[in-house]
């Protein structure tokens, strides 16, 4: 029903997914980085090869903190997607998992979950914001500001302030992001981060956060611009997902030249969410 791609096939899949942008952005971005950087192990599965209709990136889950490493899914055929979700063993519907995919697949996930008698909740619905021309970023004045990268000593701080993290369950995800993908932060006089932004394994930039007492100083603008330039220099796609209700971030990214695709929304679905915080 679904089989895993080899290293050589991953490169072909990357090129194929490029044809479906922006809808394939997240899985495409993941493969762009996966074909260049080795981070946490992930299985990439398709329904058939080479003309796949469903492709998904499924992280290995060895401990509880790994549950925050979302699966990513792109499908061109809704019927095939529903069949895979219903009949294959790609996902264990008796356990917790989270999937990022098109909001257009909402009814499929709800229907399959209902048929299996398990709770399924959409936890986020986001705009896809892309920066097509990094050279057109507006000038940003960072004089007198110490801009650096996050390191392992900052994992706890980032985890505690992330809205989707609770206790220590997001630590594994954030450790992988800081260790393997670009990040930017503003440091205070004591060398401690007061504002930061990270790159997900899919290449999306996010987890943007500024400590309340340091807001209103333009740090977010500096960090988004800096990380966008860094990721572009590495050959990564430059994009972000902004929750529909987050007007502040939407305005920030728009002012920096990011554009929304009005025809597309990305969503995240959690199955058996209660299990992750037990």
UniProtKB/TrEMBL annotation:
<dbReference type="InterPro" id="IPR016181">
    <property type="entry name" value="Acyl_CoA_acyltransferase"/>
</dbReference>
<protein>
    <recommendedName>
        <fullName>Glycine N-acyltransferase-like protein</fullName>
        <ecNumber>2.3.1.-</ecNumber>
    </recommendedName>
</protein>
<keyword id="KW-0012">Acyltransferase</keyword>
<keyword id="KW-0808">Transferase</keyword>
<comment type="similarity">
    <text>Belongs to the glycine N-acyltransferase family.</text>
</comment>
<feature type="domain" description="N-acetyltransferase">
    <location>
        <begin position="145"/>
        <end position="278"/>
    </location>
</feature>
<dbReference type="Pfam" id="PF06021">
    <property type="entry name" value="Gly_acyl_tr_N"/>
</dbReference>
<dbReference type="GO" id="GO:0005739">
    <property type="term" value="C:mitochondrion"/>
</dbReference>
<dbReference type="InterPro" id="IPR015938">
    <property type="entry name" value="Glycine_N-acyltransferase_N"/>
</dbReference>
<dbReference type="InterPro" id="IPR000182">
    <property type="entry name" value="GNAT_dom"/>
</dbReference>
<dbReference type="Pfam" id="PF08444">
    <property type="entry name" value="Gly_acyl_tr_C"/>
</dbReference>
<dbReference type="InterPro" id="IPR013652">
    <property type="entry name" value="Glycine_N-acyltransferase_C"/>
</dbReference>
<dbReference type="InterPro" id="IPR010313">
    <property type="entry name" value="Glycine_N-acyltransferase"/>
</dbReference>
<dbReference type="GO" id="GO:0047961">
    <property type="term" value="F:glycine N-acyltransferase activity"/>
</dbReference>
């Amino acid at each position: 029903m679904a089989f895993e791609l080899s290293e050589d096939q991953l490169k072909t899949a990357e090129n194929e997914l490029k044809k479906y942008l922006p809808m394939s952005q997240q899985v495409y971005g993941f493969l762009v980085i996966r074909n260049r950087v080795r981070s946490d192990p992930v299985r990439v599965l398709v329904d058939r090869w080479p003309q796949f209709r469903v492709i998904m990136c499924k992280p290995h889950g060895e401990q509880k903190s790994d549950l925050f490493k979302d699966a990513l899914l792109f499908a061109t055929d809704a019927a095939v997607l529903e069949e895979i979700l219903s009949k294959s063993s790609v996902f264990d519907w008796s356990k917790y998992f989270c999937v990022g995919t098109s909001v257009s697949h909402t009814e499929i996930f709800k229907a399959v979950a209902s048929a299996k008698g398990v709770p399924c909740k959409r936890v986020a619905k986001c705009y896809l914001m892309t920066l097509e021309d990094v050279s057109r970023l507006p000038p940003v004045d960072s004089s007198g500001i110490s801009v650096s990268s996050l390191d392992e000593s900052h994992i706890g701080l980032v985890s505690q302030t992330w809205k989707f993290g609770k206790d220590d369950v997001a630590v594994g995800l954030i450790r992988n992001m800081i260790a393997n993908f670009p990040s930017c932060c503003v440091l205070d006089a004591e060398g401690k981060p007061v504002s930061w932004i990270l790159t997900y394994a899919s290449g999306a930039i996010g987890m943007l956060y500024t400590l309340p007492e340091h807001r209103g100083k333009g740090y977010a603008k500096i960090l988004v611009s800096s990380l966008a330039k860094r990721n572009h220099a590495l050959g990564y796609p430059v994009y972000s997902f902004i929750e529909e209700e987050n007007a502040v971030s939407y305005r920030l990214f728009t002012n920096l030249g990011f554009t929304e695709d009005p025809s597309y929304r990305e969503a995240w679905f959690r199955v058996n969410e209660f299990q992750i915080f037990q």
